[in-house]
Amino acid sequence: MIDWSNLIRNAPWIIAMSLALAAFGYASWQASVQKEKFRVMVGQPGIQMTLNLAGILFSAGLAGSTAVLWQRLLWIVLAAGFAFQLGVDLWRWRGKHKKERDTQAGHRNAGNR
Predict the structure, then answer these.
(1) Which residues contact 88 (CB under 8 A, 6 or more apart)?
(2) Where are the alpha helices (DSSP H) in the chain?
(3) Domain locations in the chain?
(4) Residue 75 contacts residue 102 (beta carbons within 8 Å)
(5) Residues 26-37 pLDDT 10s
(6) CA angle 74-77-79, nearest 5°?
């Protein structure tokens, strides 16, 4: 018989590991296609945000699967750290893309004059 509560408690960290593996696989593929170092590709914002999301899911999954209070608190703190880093990455990414959109709009408006 399937223990559904145990399955639900462990699903987040299993999904997180799958997500991290997919991100590393994609970074490896991009590095080989672009003839770039793997660590440069892992440093790209999209990969970093994906890995931070995986870290949040992993930490939340392990926080939910432990019964020891201090372990649960440490996993929650780690998840909060990943969430903070994800927020910083999203803020930087959004600012970068806003500048690019503004620059493109400026070039289009200059061409209409």
Answers:
(1) none
(2) 4-33, 38-42, 45-65, 69-111
(3) 4-111
(4) no
(5) 999 999 999 999
(6) 110
